[in-house]
Amino acid sequence: MAVVTKGKDQIFAYSLAKYSQRLVQSDTPNSGNAFSRWVGKMLLINSERHAASIEPGTTLLSVLRDQIGLKGAKEACGRGECGACTVLIDDVPVMSCITLASRVKGEVTTVEGLAEEFRDLREAFADYGGFQCGFCTSGQLVRATALLRAGLPADRQKAEEIIRYEMSGNICRCTGYNGIVEAIWATAEARRLNVAT
Ligand code: FES
Ligand code: FES
Q1: Ligand nearest 77 Cα, by number?
Q2: Domain hosting residue 78, numbered range
Q3: Is the pLDDT of residue 153 over 80?
Q4: Residues 187 and 121 in one domain
């Protein structure tokens, strides 16, 4: 068995302390340290490229809100149950609070990126009482935009069934949902007939 001298013990303890210190220092974004858990990633968001610093558990929502400064997607439940954080990835609605930023491959579109496209939908939400406190509204608008892009049948009853089903993942504690359904239906109908809501 090797005999460890006091001098070697001191050298080992010093090395361990320096190593631990480097690990602690590395636990910050962009530290550039070889031990860092943070890595850089380019994300395409609303047609612009953004650099993000992510670690294994970083969510898309936290990147959008805390790093890019896009506050439209809201954090409510934080566990994929309410839809307040809904964004599109390549036109598919996803809940960004449970989407790992490291897994994002396509283009992310937030409510800010849809402002022009859903001007009529936003006005219909106002006209038909589709929001009150507004906390859920950005998520509702994003998911409704995806639904309108996909198209709805001209038959109102069938269309409303589809709207209620497709929007069921977006919780609203204020409106009772009828105003939201009517706003989406009215927008679809107006677009179909090419008239203003
Ligand atoms: S905050 Fe993401 S689903 Fe509720
Ligand atoms: S408008 Fe208040 S939660 Fe939907």
Answers
A1: 1
A2: 39-113
A3: yes
A4: yes
User: Per the structure, how many domains does the chain have?
Assistant: 2
Q: Assign 99 to helix, strand or coil.
A: coil
**pLDDT per residue as tens digits for the range 67-90:** 999 999 999 999 999 999 999 999
Q: Best mutation site among 140, 175, 177 for ligand 2, i.e. most ligand atoms within 8 A of its Cβ? A: 175
Same domain, 181 and 133: yes
**CA angle, 158 then 115 then 143, to 5°:** 35
pTM above 0.70, yes or no: yes
CATH code (residue 168): 1.10.150.120
Which residues make Cβ contacts (< 8 Å) with residue 119, sequence separation at least 6? none
- How does residue 37 score in pLDDT terms, banded at 50, 70 and 90? confident
Q: Which of 112, 115, 118, 83 is nearest to 98 (CA)?
A: 83
177 lines ligand 2 (CB under 6 A): no
User: pLDDT digits over 116-152, tens only?
Assistant: 899 999 999 999 999 999 999 999 999 999 999 999 9
Residues whose beta carbon lies within 6 Å of some atom of ligand 1: 75-78, 80-85, 95, 97
With CA atoms as reference, report the closest residue to 164 among 149, 136, 183: 183
> Distance from the CA of 176 to the center of ligand 2, in angstroms?
9
Mark which of 64, 96, 113 sits at the end of a domain.
113
- Whether residue 101 has its Cβ less than 6 Å from ligand 2: no
